[in-house]
Design a protein that fits this description.
Elements: H1 5-18, H2 21-30, H3 37-44, H4 48-60, E1 64-69, E2 72-77, H5 80-97
Antiparallel strand pairs: 1-2
Protein name: HTH-type transcriptional regulator CmtR
Domain HTH arsR-type: 3-100
Keywords: Cadmium, DNA-binding, Metal-binding, Transcription, Transcription regulation
């Protein structure tokens, strides 16, 4: 099977989303259940403004979607398979090299 430019772009987008610890925490939190931004900000201990920027990035990457609930907006993973993929990645990486760090860990970027 040949790898297409679309496959590479999708994985690159996913990698950029995971490149930031706050976005990782958001995705890992949303894998359990949808949440409202105020609840996410409180759970993660970050400001609502900072959270909003990260949610916008994840939304633009296509990893989370919003659902209006009355006057509030609820966020959830765009596809339940993302939660499984996050769990698989987390456990696979821990199993392979738990004692290593990424040389590019200081670089930040958004989707």
């Amino acid at each position: 099977m040949l790898t297409t430019a679309s496959d590479i772009e999708v994985l690159t987008r996913f990698g950029r989303a995971l490149a930031d610890p706050i976005r990782c925490r958001i995705l890992l939190t949303l894998r359990h259940a949808p949440a409202h931004p105020a609840d996410l900000a409180d759970a993660l201990g970050i400001s609502r403004t900072r959270l909003s920027n990260h949610l916008a990035c994840l939304r633009d990457c296509g990893l989370v979607v919003t659902t209006p609930v009355g006057r509030r907006t609820r966020y959830e993973l765009a596809d339940e398979r993302l939660g499984h993929a996050l769990d698989d990645l987390r456990t696979a990486i821990v199993a392979v090299v738990a004692d290593r760090t990424c040389p590019d860990a200081e670089e930040k970027g958004c989707c």
